[in-house]
Amino acid sequence: MKGKRVLIVGTGIGGATAAVTLARQGQDVHCIDIKPERPTAGAGICLLHNTMRALEGIGLASACLESGMPFSVFKEFDAAGHLLHAHPAPPSCGIRRPELARILEAAAQKSGAVLEKGVTIQDLIDRGECVDVQFSDGRQASYDLVVAADGVYSGLRKRVFGAAFEPRFAGQSVWRFNAPRPEEADGFCLYRTSAGKVLGIFPTSQESCYMFYLESSAEPLRIAEDQSHVLIRERLAEFDAPAIRDALDRITQPQQVIFRPLDITLVPAPWHRGRVVLLGDAAHAPTPQMTSGAGMAVEDAVVLAECLSSSNSVGAALENYDSRRYQRVKRIYDASLQLCLNEQEDAAANKDRSAALLLETYRYLGEPI
Ligand SMILES: Cc1cc2nc3c(=O)[nH]c(=O)nc-3n(C[C@H](O)[C@H](O)[C@H](O)COP(=O)(O)OP(=O)(O)OC[C@H]3O[C@@H](n4cnc5c(N)ncnc54)[C@H](O)[C@@H]3O)c2cc1C
Fold first, then answer.
1. CATH number at residue 40
2. Which pLDDT tens digit goes with each residue over 328-365?
3. Fewer Cβ within 10 Å of end Cβ, the chain: N or C?
């Protein structure tokens, strides 16, 4: 099928990639986002081998590699910054999130998709033959398919699927900040204290890197966000590694620290109701341990476009999409959650078990989609 009118709600990583894949396959794509502008600030993101393979398939891997930084090593350090181990890792690319957004949105527009910012859905009626949509600015239009790519807190999922799949707290919160890249951060790096605290670093370009620290708590952590620059220093006080001390010295404003509790969800298949289908975090938001949430969203976008172009009806395409995506995504979601639980229980005691699960899941990610 070609020439189908598709509305994508959300121009995040999943929605923007779907705009590229669907427009390139000849669908008539309209993409909206509630935010008035593309984000210009944000942390980094790791695009694993399977994500890079999917981006390569739509011609966007080289742009990511040019803006970001490729790496294929996993390093472990002690808290003082002494290198303990270096292992080969699957070829990945670290990139700043605003850069990834720029690359995806530019490609979507070049492919013929129409992108609009500062607009959302006011009302939606699935009439069986089409979906009638009323927008927040009063306009109305009809579509053959509506893609809910509006993230983990998806309002469209709640409207169409009900409240059963609202996200739940995963028992950890994440602190993130950007820094100039120290020379040693040429791969995925973990620094461990003897008390079991772990700080991660990976490059986001030749010049920059991103640092993250996961904190476990039974209940969602509430912090004074205007003090987050002070709070992160307190939490990382035991890390003496010069790379970490140098980065922390540069953290002088709360806005430099991105803090959020980890909320997760996995909607069981089917991911569609009538002509509305979920994609990306709206369908499956894992914990970040497998660095795969965005990768799964990118794969969703590739597979959805393939299913639409190779099916005779929207219904058949969506069934095909569900059957190709659900088991794969569930395996990654389960592995990520298990790694998260291992850390909460006892990161040091579970280190070998977690490493084995990570390697096995990396291998699985390399299988064809
Ligand atoms: C700490 C952390 C680290 C991570 N690290 C990695 C990593 O290294 N690698 C990786 O692959 N994944 C990673 N992820 C996961 C990744 O960030 C997400 O899976 C990915 O961003 C999901 O993309 P998405 O497009 O589905 O949703 P989002 O990126 O959340 O985009 C949703 C979009 O919808 C818009 N929107 C929301 N509501 C509406 C509405 N009502 N109307 C219109 N638009 C709306 C939003 O403005 C937004 O632009 C990480 C996640 C976390 C929390």
1. 3.50.50.60
2. 999 999 999 999 999 999 888 898 999 999 999 999 99
3. C
**Ligand 1 closest atom vs CA 44:** 8
Q: Give the pLDDT of residue 78.
A: 97
* Ligand 1 atom having least distance to the Cα of 14: 25
What's the gap in Å between 339 CA and the centre of ligand 1? 20
Res 196 pLDDT > 90: no
Give the number of other CB atoms < 10 A from CB of residue 345: 11
What are the C-alpha distances in Å from 286 to residues 56, 184, 281, 360? 24, 29, 8, 17
Which atom of ligand 1 lies nearest, measured to the CA of 174? 1
**272 assigned to some structural domain:** yes
Reference 101, options 165, 167, 157, 37; nearest CA is: 37
Token digits for 246?
Answer: 């140098």
Number of separate domains in the chain = 1
| 277 CA distance to ligand 1 middle (Å) | 17
pLDDT digits (tens, 9 = 90+) for 200-236: 999 999 999 999 999 999 999 999 999 999 999 999 9
Query: Ligand 1: distance of its center to the CA of 265 in Å?
Result: 13
Task: Indicate whether 191 belongs to any domain.
Answer: no
Determine the distance separating the centroid of ligand 1 and the alpha carbon of 242, expressed in angstroms. Answer: 32
CB-ligand 1 contact for 44 (6 Å cutoff): no
Q: Distance from the CA of 102 to the center of ligand 1, in angstroms? A: 14
Domain that holds residue 155: 5-50+97-167+265-347
In 3D space, the residue among 189, 157, 152 whose CA is nearest the CA of residue 73 turns out to be: 189
CA angle 334, 340, 342 (to 5 degrees): 100
- 157 inside domain: yes
Question: Which residue has its alpha carbon closest to ligand 1 atom 38?
Answer: 150
Which of 115, 281, 298, 337 most suits a substitution to test ligand 1, by most atoms within 8 Å of the C-beta?
Answer: 281
User: By three-state DSSP, how is residue 268 classified?
Assistant: coil
Distance separating alpha carbons of residues 359 and 367, to the nearest angstrom: 13
